[in-house]
């Protein structure tokens, strides 16, 4: 492991590019369906969020991550999964990783005040915000981005519904995207060369949990996908950054919902010796959403592969599998 610069060595993935401003909905649906049955990833352009806002989110993210560690630890992730996550907080690929992910992050969810009825539910509650005198305009920038990202996510969800032969408004139901578990996660990867053969990763191989992920990246490479996790040895492809675009992928819950018609694809982050920042927006179903096989994705010859499950139960399980025990950090600070 070192700090020299290295170049990507893997082949480059070829991904479909979907233009959200395209008036030809059938064309967009066709491109999305092809992407979600092949790689599970695609680029999204003309999504409506200005580059100025995305740049400001990156700038505010860098301000947070350059704070002294003792200041960041005051904002440590709580039991609602809001706040700062230190290096090695996640172990996303325990079979192959020597240690946790070589990244730090920050979770921001939908703001729900403690006195509101939903605040008792997992993944709902108040956010952990940096003090305004330390990071002025930080909260305002993040809330503005979240509001706009939700609209983009809902627009993609309409295309997903159409691609699965559902009504365009299928995912707009109150229990699905009416009160979604929508999470922005700021990520900072260290300027290290991380060798997978030594078990060192910026983020170990994993699939996302939920419905849709929107990812904005800087111009530093590192993201890789594996289209077929069962092929040995696994074949990894670099996903090139694309200025102004979101890299979009679907999560395990949509794969489950669609009875494996759509594909939640393994991906990881490799360190090439440069600092790397990204902004991930995870659009998840609501707390009380019962996820069961979609009517258009099952038949007598293709029965449901998964039992119905409430999304709150599924998400809680997934977080417990990958995140370190918060008590570890609390003991370190005492």
TrEMBL record:
PANTHER family (UniProt xref): 2-OXOGLUTARATE (2OG) AND FE(II)-DEPENDENT OXYGENASE SUPERFAMILY PROTEIN, OXIDOREDUCTASE, 2OG-FE II OXYGENASE FAMILY PROTEIN
Does the record bear Metal-binding in its keywords?
yes
InterPro entries tied to this protein: DIOX_N, IPNS-like_FE2OG_OXY, IPNS-like_sf, Oxoglu/Fe-dep_dioxygenase_dom
The family classification in the record reads: Belongs to the iron/ascorbate-dependent oxidoreductase family.
Alphabetical list of PROSITE patterns matching this protein: FE2OG_OXY (PS51471)
- Which keywords does the record carry? Iron, Metal-binding, Oxidoreductase
List the protein's name.
Fe2OG dioxygenase domain-containing protein
Record domain Fe2OG dioxygenase: where = 180-285
**Signal peptide coordinates:** none
Q: Which terms does the record give in the GO molecular function aspect? A: dioxygenase activity; metal ion binding
Q: List the taxonomic lineage.
A: Eukaryota, Viridiplantae, Streptophyta, Embryophyta, Tracheophyta
């Amino acid at each position: 492991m070192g700090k020299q610069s290295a170049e990507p060595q893997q082949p480059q993935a070829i991904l479909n590019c979907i233009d959200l401003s395209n008036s030809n909905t059938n064309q967009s649906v066709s491109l999305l369906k092809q992407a979600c049955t092949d790689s599970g990833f695609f680029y999204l352009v003309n999504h409506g969020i200005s580059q100025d806002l995305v740049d400001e989110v990156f700038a505010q993210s860098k301000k947070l991550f350059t704070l002294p560690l003792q200041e960041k630890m005051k904002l440590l992730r709580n039991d609602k999964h809001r706040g700062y996550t230190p290096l090695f907080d996640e172990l996303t690929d325990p079979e192959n990783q020597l240690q946790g992910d070589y990244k730090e992050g920050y979770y921001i969810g939908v703001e729900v005040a403690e006195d509101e009825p939903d605040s008792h539910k997992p993944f709902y509650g108040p956010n952990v915000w940096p003090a305004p005198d330390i990071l002025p305009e930080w909260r305002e920038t993040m809330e503005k981005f979240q509001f706009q990202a939700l609209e983009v996510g809902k627009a993609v969800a309409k295309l997903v519904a159409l691609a699965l032969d559902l009504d365009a408004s299928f995912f707009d139901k109150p229990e699905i995207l009416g009160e979604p578990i929508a999470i922005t996660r700021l990520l900072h990867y260290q300027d290290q060369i991380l060798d997978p053969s030594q078990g060192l990763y910026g983020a170990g191989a994993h699939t996302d949990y939920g419905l849709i992920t929107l990812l904005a990246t800087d111009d530093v490479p590192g993201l890789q996908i594996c289209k077929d996790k069962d092929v040995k040895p696994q074949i990894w492809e670099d996903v090139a950054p694309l200025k102004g675009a979101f890299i979009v992928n679907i999560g395990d819950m949509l794969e489950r919902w669609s009875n494996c018609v759509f594909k939640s694809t393994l991906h990881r982050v490799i360190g090439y010796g440069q600092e790397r920042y990204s902004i991930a927006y995870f659009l998840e179903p609501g707390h009380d959403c019962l996820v069961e096989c979609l009517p258009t994705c099952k038949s007598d010859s293709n029965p449901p592969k998964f039992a119905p499950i409430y999304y709150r139960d599924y998400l809680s399980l997934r977080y417990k599998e990958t995140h370190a025990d918060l008590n570890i950090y609390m003991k370190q600070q005492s």
